[in-house]
Amino acid sequence: MLGEVRHALTVGFFGTSIMEHLEAVNTQMTAQANLPEVGSTVTVERWARRGWVHRLALSLRAAWPHIAFDVRNHGRGGATSRDIAGIVEADRSTTGTDYDLVFLGCGINDVWRCFQGRMAEAVGIAEYTRHLTGMLDQLSGYSCRIVVVSETPFGPVADPATVTAMNAELARYNEAAHAAAAAHGTMFLDVWAPFTAVARLIGDPAALWSDGVHLTELGDTVLLQQAEQLLAEHGIIEELLDCPLSGA
Asked: Is the pTM of this model over 0.85?
């Protein structure tokens, strides 16, 4: 009902391993009073999501402790825009979730598969644009706010000339994503520029990537800061709390 105070926000993430960021977990590894000895072995108990999405969820809960954030991370390692479009469709058809805030990012695997010679999985820019546009069309119907997140550049994943060519192609996909976001009136978070700036200024080209594609803790922190800055500068959480409750 109008005027009713909101106490919960649903936040969705749709993307690649940059959002999924799985980590092996053993309880003893994080129990500071009972850490395993150096050189000992432990058994992986489960996989957990970490990375910038996990840290953003913690940041939101710390900043807004009176709000219940229902964070749904649909990130999937290796996913292309073709795959993510299917994930968006499946999520809607199976859960019917209405989102207050959605972060959507894809493209890095679309490009990488081509350079890997995995042409059946590669997604050209025209098809990529169709998938992204379709997802924005769909998500706009049941999401209050959408943020399209640019892809991070490739690091030293191959020889320098190949990486340069990969990044030139990926930049075209980011430009297409920016244009699609503008056409839908949604926000676009450019993490490419600050990411490359940090990589250049820190003096270590590999510091932000664990393997040239996936991110280190430093790389995750750059993404986290950009997302937090966007939310704060535009007062997005405050705006969402003032919106009528779903179904009102």
From this structure: yes
